[in-house]
Input
Amino acid sequence: MEILLISLFIIGYAAIAFEHGIKVDKAASALILGVLIWTVVILAGYKLIPDEQLGLRVYLDKLLIENKLDPSWSITDAKHHYIEYGLIEYLGEVAQILFFLIGAMAIVEVIDIHKGFQFITDRIKTTNAVKLLWIIAVLSFFLSAILDNLTTTIVMVSLIRKLIEDQHKRWFYAGIIVIAANSGGAWSPIGDVTTTMLWIDGQITESNIVVELIIPSIISLLIPLLILSFTLKGELKRPKIADIPTLQQKPIDITQRESLLVLITGIVSLLFVPAFKLVTHLPPFMGMMLSLGGLWVVTEILHKKKEQGHYLSVISGLRKVDMASVLFFLGILLAIGGLQITGLLAQLATILQNNIADLNVLNIIIGGLSAIVDNVPLVAAAQAMFNIEATGPFATDGTFWNMLAYCAGTGGSILIIGSAAGVAAMGIEKISFGWYLKHISWLALLGYLAGAITYILIQ
Output
């Protein structure tokens, strides 16, 4: 059965990695993969490794205490119920991540609906290629830490389309946006899905990750940025300003004051989440739901007298949330959970630890792999393979988890399909895989390795 599960996982990964080639969205592949793995586990049964045998015994003792243990159960029945119990328990952990993402995406969409991001983009006046490169990079880096790398990439790539007419030159800026967004997201608990996952599950804390990773993250951007500064020269020509789109042939009534208010409220709402967790110790998704509810009240009051007020509410933002991405995370995390309950990931962890003694090298390899496959399942697998310990590199805020956050967050920049930011830039700008590989990948790789070495040296 182990061979079947591994084969399914590899086939599913291939379908996800080459979604553009096979013309099947990665969310569909991930959902099928997640459900099939759990189906095989429960129908075919599995050999319980020692840790899972202990888990089964604890589960049966729990049922016995609660008078829920059926005396007629065979060992097979007990295993089936244990697997179902494991699925429900694991789904609770997954749901925290999904609700967090839905809330964050909705808040960002509401800001975008109110044209809040234009307050940033409209103030960029320079046409100098190098100056614009640095402005775009720095903005992307810090916006990603506040928002997330995917949203930042969408906003910033949309921005450069308004600032640069030549598509070939624009691709270089899109490339640096991908690198900057991934680097900026790595050191913030809300900047990258993988960092958020580590934060939610307790491997890292919000204050420590900022202190530990901000310098390596800056280095990972600075190296490519300096090299590109010697490549891009001269002045850039701006495209003609297109007509502003309207809703149902009727402009939406949004004042500059309202746009600024929603922008500030939205950003404060996102920054409130880690502070809420720090004070209450409740899961981060609770703070995100509170922030979403607060923004919802603000927009309802702000537009209650407007004819088109419902188009500007959080309900409209929720409709624009990329549910395909949410379902992708659900599918891939379910797949990881299925491998976890069988003990396969624990076995893999043992193999890796026995053959790769240096944990820094292990993390660098994981980061390199995240350029080929999505970094979300890689981090989920690492979380399942290695337990949080009281002391040492695997303790909360230990060196292993900190470097994992850096490597998984920035390693995806090496290939354009290696991160959500890269895929978004690829879709918006129609950047080819080969062009990115030739012009940007080597820059991202140099930055990635430089940042990793920096982290190792400052420990």
